[in-house]
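tl;dr need the bound structure. longer version: we got a ligand (zinc ion) that a collaborator sent over and nobodys looked at where it sits. i said id run it. heres the input, straight from their email, havent touched it
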Amino acid sequence: PHTIYLKDYTPPVYQVETLNLKFELGDEFTVVTSTAHYQRDPSHLGNTLLELDGEDLELISVQLDGRYLQVNQDYRLTPEGLQILTMPAQGSLEIVTRIYPQKNTALEGLYQSSGNFCTQCEAQGFRKITYYQDRPDVMTLFTTDIIAERAKYPVLLSNGNLVAAGELEEGKHWARWLDPYRKPAYLFALVAGHLKHVEDFYTTGSGRKVTLRIYTEPHNISKCEHAMQSLKRAMRWDEQRFGLEYDLDIYMIVAVDDFNMGAMENKGLNIFNSKLVFASPETATDQDYINIESVIGHEYFHNWTGNRITCRDWFQLSLKEGLTVFRDQEFTADLHSPAVKRIEDVRMLRTFQFTEDASPMAHPIRPASYMEINNFYTMTVYEKGAEVVRLYQTLLGRAGFRQGMDLYFARHDGQAVTTEDFLAAMADANQADLKQLQRWYDQAGTPEVKVTMTYDATAQTCRLHCVQSIPATPESQHKQPQLIPLQVGLLRETGADLALYLEDQPCDGILQLTQAEQSFRFTQVPEQPVPSLLRNFSAPVRLVYPYTEAELIFLMKHDSDAFNRWDAGQRLAMRAFESLLLDLKQGIPLGLSHECVCAWQVVLTDENLDPALRAEALSLPSETDIAEQLRPADPAAIHQVREFVLTTLAKALRLDFEIIFYRLQHQGVYQIDAASMGKRRLKNVCLAYLGHLDDQAVPALCAEQYAQANNMTDALAALAVLVDIDCPERVAALQHFHDRWQHDPLVMDKWFALQASSSLPNTLQQVQQLLEHPLFDMRNPNKVRALIGSFALRNPWHFHAADGSGYAFLAERVLWLNERNPQVAARMVRPLINWRHYESGRAQLMRGQLERIQAHQGLSADVYEIVSKSLA
Ligand code: HT7
Ligand code: ZN
């Protein structure tokens, strides 16, 4: 595999005016005829080489303006594709290829899922369909003809509007779709199959009626209502918040079972992993409901941020993904609780993106190079990218951000652009100097901001001294300071916020850090305050401040910023874990301070606090979080101290947990509004704590909740506690769940995932046995993620077993996947790459498995890139 560099970007020599595709879908193979009209950029003179990308294609013929071309005379086949040797300034090229979708296990290009045809073209899957300039800066008008047997494939779909359809001989039929908007090849989609749909309508703000359809296999048709309502909410929200309307007459979503990622925003024809479409109270958890709404929103929002304005090249991926994640975050926050949403997003960012930023795969949100672009659909590009977009809003305010967006659309609609174009639109619309924000796009690594405070009682001033540093990462050792908005508050002894004056000027609390070291002096500060720093997580940085335990407890109680109230609790827990780990190492008996226990009790019993926020506050940093922050990590010790803290709190606050649990136990009819979800969340957090008591009543309590539950959230929460307890109730409930849901693959994914995350001693053996289960299928990415992904990512104690058995198991699965589905293989190998963060014994064992994978013959570019970079 070779490396591709951003600095080598050159614009395409040829643009494509129109592209007509004809698909003859067959039982063994599919014939694709593509007819493209090429137009050379006038700055290039004379006949030129036209390079077309192509992979795994059988070429049948090439014609230029009706003349058959000869191999090696007129065109050449290369490992990367096809070269037309002397292409005129303009011409029509017809290329016929044969492909084998039924044999496509990589799920990229045209493939089959449950016997239906579907496509996945982002990032570079179109080149597996036909020879073409498979790059986002080549945008054209697509017409698609689909021909197939009617009995097997009654539904034939592609992008845009259906313009004609008809019958053919031998039981075949055809359909023609025309997309009136220019688009890059990665947004092309085709679906053909035995599908049913639900239909609804949406009237846009300007009064246009849009048909909305969700297509699924017939047996899932009843589970699409939530997705449909989510789509309508997203359409309304984008009009209200950003003034953006949908632009076609029809919007279609197709749910498929075999999909490498979550969903795909193909123009007018989204294709979704069925996991992110289907919901009913009995089969989907509250979190599933929220995820569906958020991803339906995300793909819909791409219609403007990604489709109407797309990326010039794949280095710009965060231009569309970071921005669209930001938009979906705001959508969820506006519809539900902004504080809960912020906490959840930051929790995920810290657990997974900070880890990635400290790994050998660390990269800036706009990488400078890659071997395999599929490896860059990362937490960094998506989630850190969204945080960087949020920086603009924090600095410019909501109104200023909207002005920037308006200018971005006005300038670039219909174009393929860069992150610099986005920055320029934001800056120009606000006459602001945002140049320093560019560094967020070019530098990897999580900045650390160290703050110290000095208070001068005589002068009544308070100085915050801030030092920022960015750790070295593979792409660069020496970093330039970034523009960091640090939102702060100063709390009085009463817990109230002080009015802020910076050098006697009223201040909104947002400090702009631009230098490596900087001081800010607040005046008119009548008493020594407690600082509340990085409120609402105003920038994706690690904040370091020497808080005392008492100060953290004070902030947990009083901070007016809900995010920081939560964060104070997380910091308090992390301090406790750190000192307990030390005690464990030195053989000192473990203990948790009385003040700590009381602090959690105050949160737990605070009836004025939203139950969802109480649940968040009681959810302590995960073992993965602890491992990342307290290196070198010893996963067994981490497991032991975390269990100790949970058990100590469960014992000390048992009565409170029980009171709250029983009070919230029966909520009647299942509802999915934010308040009901918050209560369920709190109740189930209480149950999880009670699960840490060594008490025979606990399995019975869980079994009862499992049996009585009228929704999947409660059933699964009870089962999640039971899977960690070796008891007859566990066996019975797992069997019952299996028998009840064996015909629903998505629910069975939960069953596989639960068992893979159990803390019981024989979990790896269980997982190995489950690989042989008749309902498990290694070719289905959802199953792989449920069983193997859960084991490697959600069960650190067993995955990091001291004998290396977890690592060996994962490596073997990665090699199996490598042959069939490299994208999924490359995702599955990631839990091994931070081997340097672990104590030496485990580090060597992890490295050993990476070396084993590296030595494997026939390693895909996807896996090779990750493994070779992590061993470098
Ligand atoms: N833009 C979509 C990305 C995607 C994808 C990328 C690589 C391989 C398979 C894929 N499926 C979907 C999804 C999104 O971010 O909206
Ligand atoms: Zn996206």
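gonna send this back to them w/ a short note. Residues 379-412 form the longest helix (34 residues).
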